[in-house]
Amino acid sequence: MRLIAFDFDGTLSDSEMTVLLGKRKAVAEEMADITERAMNDEISYAQSLRKRASLLEGLEIEDAEAAYGEVELRPGAADLIARLRDAGHHVAILTGGFERGVERALEKEGVEVDSIVANRLPVERDRLTGDVEGPLVEGTKDEALESLADELDARLSHSVAVGDGANDLPMLEVAGLAVGFEPKAAVRPSCDEVVTSMYELGDLLAERAIVRKSK
């Protein structure tokens, strides 16, 4: 068994959750700018996440749920997850994004993963509070990956991490195989391999004998 860890926004999904939520409050452009600065390592991820969450204060939960419902997996992602799990690997999603959006995207495709480590947007009186909570606000993805490896008694040197942005750097740097998915310029030097689609990633993992070749 290997531990395979995916980032979500920008990697498994090309939907940016905070932007979809921001559209519901007409702050999507501000959200996108903050996100881009964080992914390029211009500001800390925790700082960017709190800034984006604060812009959502007062958003009705119905509108938030509608935004989560728009989140989608990339083409080929569901099939690759299923193949990895069929091969006996533990598939994890480690994201600074929001658990509910990840769950909705997986449900839509009828696929499951073994672990989701994600953040949450608290709700009071059926509206978002503007706060954010969870293990990956201040916590980092290398810590999350190492914790999962310990729980599973899996060798970190055999793990695979797939990500695209600066907040993925910690897990890419400790994983046995670091794969950049159309990585940002600041991330590319830390990647062992770079791919541009889930199909290309599947071929790479098949070459490494981690999954069987797609039929």
Automatic annotation (TrEMBL):
PANTHER family: PHOSPHOSERINE PHOSPHATASE. Belongs to the HAD-like hydrolase superfamily. SerB family. It comes from the Archaea. Residues 77-110 form the Rhodanese domain. One of its GO terms (molecular function) is metal ion binding. Its cofactor is Mg(2+). The active site is at D7, D9. NCBIfam families: HAD-SF-IB, serB. Keywords: Amino-acid biosynthesis, Hydrolase, Magnesium, Metal-binding, Serine biosynthesis. This is phosphoserine phosphatase. It is an enzyme of class 3 (hydrolase). The gene is serB. InterPro entries: HAD-like_SerB, HAD-like_sf, HAD_sf, PSP, Rhodanese-like_dom. Pathway: Amino-acid biosynthesis; L-serine biosynthesis; L-serine from 3-phospho-D-glycerate: step 3/3. Its EC number is 3.1.3.3.
